[in-house]
Amino acid sequence: MATINLTASTFDEVVAKDGIVLVDFWAEWCGPCKNFAPIFEKSSDAKAEIVHAKVDTEAEQELGMKFGITAIPTLMAFRDGIMVFNQAGALPAPALNQLVDAVEALDMDDVRAKLAEHEAADH
Question: Which InterPro entries match (predicted)?
Answer without folding.
Answer: Thioredoxin, Thioredoxin-like_sf, Thioredoxin_CS, Thioredoxin_domain
